[in-house]
Amino acid sequence: MTFDEWVNKYKGKGIDYDKYAGVQCVDLVKHFVKNVLELTPQSVGNAIDYYKKRYTEPYLTDNFDWIDNTPKFVPQKGDIGVFKTNSRLGHIVVCNGVGDTSSFQAYDENHNDTHAPMTLRIFAYSGKRTLLGVLRPKDQRKVLGIATGWKADSNGWYYVNEDGNYAKSQWLYVDGDWYYMGDNGYCLTSQWFKYKNDWYYFNATGRMDKSKWVMDSQDWCYVDREGKMVTNAWCEDSQGWCYVKNDGHLLRDGYAWDSVGKHYLDDTGHMEW
Predict the structure, then answer these.
(1) By the 8 A CB rule, do 83 and 62 touch?
(2) How far apart are CA 139 and CA 134, in angstroms?
(3) Which residue from 6, 48, 167, 230 has the fewest beta carbons nearer than 10 Å?
(4) Where are any strands of DSSP class E within 100-230?
(5) Higher confidence at residue 271 or residue 155?
(6) Is the pLDDT of residue 260 over 80?
(7) How many CA atoms lie within 13 A of 165 on its CB side?
(8) pTM to 2 decimals?
């Protein structure tokens, strides 16, 4: 689920993720990691240990970037903030991206050791507790709510990659079919496209045709199993042999040669003799 979906579903609920010692601030972080970041939470220790082990624990270094708190720093959405407190255990929160250099908002549990449920609060950077910094998820897709895959608008179909960027000027292989994304980010439809020295046809759905006859504005053409337009070659269909010319179009009412000799093709494009 996305960050916003997680908040809407669990805000106000007490989450005892590890079923140990009741509702704790670390339980909320583990739940966030599991459900939003889709990672398997690891046992790091108490809240302050997320700071102490920020550079030594592989689980943290592989999945998060540590950012120190500075006078100009403001946490962003999805940051996991770690506080030093009067308690040796520390405190840990999940930030929502709202704030400035004087204070910021974040969700926590067990506020002031009260076993309070997931609650949105306003935190100062220093005072009773001091923000040491944040662990920022390296994968921001779920945090930012970026949905990958095919999308459409009034201009056509486009594709959002896992990094959140649009696929442009590239081939795209999705669910067994090839597409080509134009310079503007939309997939080509109902048109020929020349790539290197070969022509390919993309039908009305955007899929590349292959191993079939294609009708364009002039006549029939044939694309092979790799999707390439066939030229100067014989092709066979259910009604017999045909020949495609240098421009890729079907030869009608004319002659073509093979290793045996000269053959006549009728007005349907099929060989008679």
Answers:
(1) no
(2) 15
(3) 230
(4) 103-108, 119-124, 130-137, 149-153, 156-160, 170-174, 177-181, 191-195, 198-202, 212-215, 220-223
(5) 155
(6) no
(7) 7
(8) 0.60
Supply φ then ψ for residue 120, to 5 degrees. -85, 125
Cβ atoms of residues 156 and 187 within 8 Å: yes
Residue 78's region, left for phi above 0, alpha for psi from -120 to 50, else beta, is left
> How many Cβ atoms are within 10 Å of 232's Cβ, its own excluded?
11
Strand-strand pairing, 191-195 and 103-108: unpaired
Long-range contacts (CB closer than 8 Å, 24 or more residues apart) made by 164-172: 164/140
Residue found by looking up tokens 């005072």 in the block: 127
Return the residue matching tokens 């040796």: 88
Q: Which residue has the tokens 């009067």?
A: 86
Which pLDDT tens digit goes with each residue over 132-189? 999 999 988 778 877 788 999 999 999 998 777 899 999 999 999 999 999 999 999 9
Tokens coding 129: 């507790």
